Amino acid sequence: MRYKIPLILLPMLMALPISSIRAEDYPSTYAPLPSVPTLITHATILTGTGERLDDASLLIADGKVVFVGKGKAPDGVTTIDANGRWVTPGLIDVHSHLGVYASPGVRAHSDGNEMTSPATPNVWAEHSIWPQDPGFSRALAGGITSLQVLPGSGNLMGGRGVTLKNVYSTSYQGMKFPGAPYGLKMACGENPKRVYGERKQLPSTRMGNMAVYRAQWIDAQQYIDDWAVYEKKLADKKDDAKAPKRDLRLETLAGVLKGEIIIHMHCYRADEMLTILDMADEFDYKVGTFHHGVEAYKIADKLAENGVCGALWADWWGFKMEAYDGIQENIAIVDRPKGSCAIVHSDDAEGIQRLNQEAAKAMGSGNRAGMNIPPERAIGWITSNAAKSLGIDKRTGSLEAGKMADVVIWNGNPFSVYAKADHVYIDGALVYDRENPALQPVSDFELGQLQGVSK
Amino acid sequence: MNHFKTLLIGFLATFSLAVQADAILIRGASVHTMTADGTLENTDIFITDGKIQRIGKNLPVPQDDVAVFNAEGKPLTPGFFAGITSIGITEVSAVEESSDSALALQEMHPEFNVVPAYNPNSSLIPVTRIEGFTFTLLDADPQGSIFGGQGRLVQLDGGYASFIGKPVLFISVGRDASSMTGGSRAAQWMLLNQAMQEADNPPAPTESTLLTRAGRATLSAFVINGKVIFNVDRASDILETLRFAKKYGLDAVISSGTEAWMVAGQLATANVPVLLDPLSNLPGNFDQLGARLDNAAILQAAGVEVIITGAGSHNARKQRQMAGNAVSYGLPHEAGIAALTSNPARVFGVADQQGSIQADKPANVVLWSGDPLDVTSAAEVVVINGKLIPMESRQTKLRDRYLPENPAMPRAYIKP
């Protein structure tokens, strides 16, 4: 059965009073912060599209990139001489738990895993986000301008993820990336089967994992069919047209089957990833990105053929059985085939602060293994490929005219342990300045702590 | 055995020949001696019989069968310290039967010692040492008690008895331990004091005790002659630790020490070193509100010996990235290297074996492709106790199995 709905029909369906497809609930209230047109000159620019421009300029105005390379800037524009410095797109982390496992990591802040049922696509990570997590400020100092916050991996279907702009706000809605598609976090392997197996519940095995996923997709197909019957009756003005009851679980899954919600699937082992791709064929949906994938290097060609991104760590391994075969060339090997989409992700409040260093390690490992990966390619692992994974690549993730002015000025080559973000811009607004404490946000939680301590 | 006059080594292709050579000559390195001699540019070192025999310029090749490496100015350092880890104690963290780092008993057993669980054939050892790490401190993880138990330094040459230095005792105080002691960290000090008093004055056989006879003997021994590592973060707990150590004459080392910078002066006065994770900059809990990236720099400037730890067992190789970040936030570069070499060697009493490059000392050295603290550089030559380490691990073999594209047969037939 095919559940793809042509995009052209979407606006029509959205106009219906009640529908299986809903307009944005909990809408974004994000608005770009104040900005001034800014010209950055004499920089080494990694565009995120695979290019490196030396002694180049970048003009940003009205929240957008105006030109990259050379161009005419208006008189009196704020100008930053970036001689000796490097400029990249703002970094994007596709796998974060900031806000849902906030610092301090007290039990009261443990909001990322609704481990009361193995399939909870009805929960939304955004409803757990604490916008005062100090981790957002640390990530910003590391050049992170957008991030996806995901539920954890205790469940097979952990719930919806949300993409944020990395700005402080009283609400998560004030951070929510406008118009970014939702993600559905799913998980393979050890975690779900351990969590539920220990309770003598389904699933306790990998085959049990598969059985639960498949049952969920079958329910979702039925849900779509029920709504289609109703909508047909409504269109035909039948008296017995009665809307099916809304079901949050199936609404999310139907969104996946219709291609509106992107699958982000935690999966370590190569064989499991291939099984998941078969399941995606069975139910005619697409896996957007495999996350963690420590064995992704074993199926790099298959991932590229299927257009699936691999969001990976540079060097994590061995913490559980399914992570035993990790190698440091994983990202570089996944990046190798034509059409690949390799991503460096963090899954970590420390790692998100140094995504550039993680990418540098992966680049170095790949180059020592005989690949020839220059910085202008590796930067895509933490910018444009990440944007593609989140479905926001038309708007951010690279420095091209018309895109969001999400920009980092680094004090040098970002592929170094000594690199620091000097300036971070989000939608053209200077939201972090390393030299200016007034432009370094502090969360409510940290304000006023340790008052007697001289810093 | 190949009897070439001199084996001039291409770094990867002919490495296996070099591993068999009797002697090693590294030419033209930038030698970070980590002694008063500082860094010697364009200097050779000659290694044979397990030791650094000579350090100098344009050394002659004194014998046949010498593996010669032309460093071309690259840095040569002492082998790095992998931090407090469970390398050789844990194979897969979540696989309980492969993990022996913790005693999950609620009672106090300072006599617990992880050393008999050490397995030199663990895959973690090659994974770690080919990244330039030559020694680690085996952890005894406090999982149920304030006392973690005892660990010891081990050299990563894969020997069954490669332990060096004396046992160290791990004690954990503060947030993590409060749940083990009735809910209050004040009770930790109460119980620790009682334990020390039991060790001092053996109780009558009829009295109920915190410790076993072996536990009392352990504590007595450490008072006389041993390092006690206190895992502690909050500034007030660190000061309490200093008082406790002074009261009982314990040779204390602080580990974790997130807020150590706040009491840097007191730590320097007490001559207590700090093992820390330089990447810790988040208030992970209420003991860590003062976390900051220049903790190491502030402590070092105050005269406290700083040692890097915290990358864990499997990814211990991240230690040098951590040191690099400490340097990025104010620690002098040479102090960053010292935090991985001479400082841990001196603090744990093995400076005669690890932590510096000196003539007549066991040869534990690493030649790096570039700045050893930067993320794109790597170890090229690793020598442990005078022996060249084959630059192979289970991970390099997996890499070499999967690097070829489109093999005709299943990869199970590719056995690098």
Please describe the topology of this protein.
The complex is a heterodimer of chains A (455) and B (416).
Chain A: H1 10-14, E1 38-46, E2 52-61, E3 64-69, E4 78-81, E5 86-89, E6 91-96, H2 135-141, E7 144-149, E8 157-165, E9 183-187, H3 190-197, H4 206-235, H5 248-257, E10 262-267, H6 270-282, E11 287-292, H7 300-305, E12 309-312, H8 330-335, E13 342-344, H9 355-368, H10 375-378, H11 384-390, E14 407-410, E15 421-426, E16 429-433
Parallel strand pairs in A: 1-4, 1-5, 6-7, 9-10, 10-11, 11-12, 12-13
Antiparallel strand pairs in A: 1-2, 2-3, 5-14, 7-8, 8-9, 14-15, 15-16
Helix pairs in contact in A: 4-5
Chain B: E1 7-8, H1 15-19, E2 23-32, E3 39-48, E4 51-56, E5 66-70, E6 75-78, E7 80-85, H2 124-129, E8 133-138, E9 147-155, E10 163-172, H3 175-178, H4 185-200, H5 213-225, E11 227-232, H6 235-248, E12 251-256, H7 264-270, E13 274-276, H8 295-301, E14 306-308, H9 319-328, H10 333-338, H11 342-347, E15 365-368, E16 379-384, E17 387-388, H12 394-402
Parallel strand pairs in B: 1-5, 2-5, 2-6, 7-8, 10-11, 11-12, 12-13, 13-14
Antiparallel strand pairs in B: 2-3, 3-4, 6-15, 8-9, 9-10, 15-16, 16-17
Helix pairs in contact in B: 4-5
Summarize the structure.
Chain A is α/β, with parallel strands linked by helices.
Word description of this protein:
- The complex is a heterodimer of chains A (455) and B (416).
- Chain A is of the alpha/beta class.
- Chain A folds into two domains: 7-30 and 91-396, TIM Barrel (Alpha-Beta Barrel); 31-89 and 398-455, Urease, subunit C, domain 1 (Roll), CATH 2.30.40.10.
- Chain A has helices at 10-14, 135-141, 190-197, 206-235, 248-257, 270-282, 300-305, 330-335, 355-368, 375-378, 384-390; strands spanning 38-46, 52-61, 64-69, 78-81, 86-89, 91-96, 144-149, 157-165, 183-187, 262-267, 287-292, 309-312, 342-344, 407-410, 421-426, 429-433.
- Chain B has two domains: 1-79 and 355-393, Urease, subunit C, domain 1, CATH 2.30.40; 80-190 and 217-351, Metal-dependent hydrolases (TIM Barrel, Alpha-Beta Barrel), CATH 3.20.20.140.
- In chain B, α4 (185-200) packs across α5.
- The model of chain B is unreliable at 1-17 (pLDDT under 50).
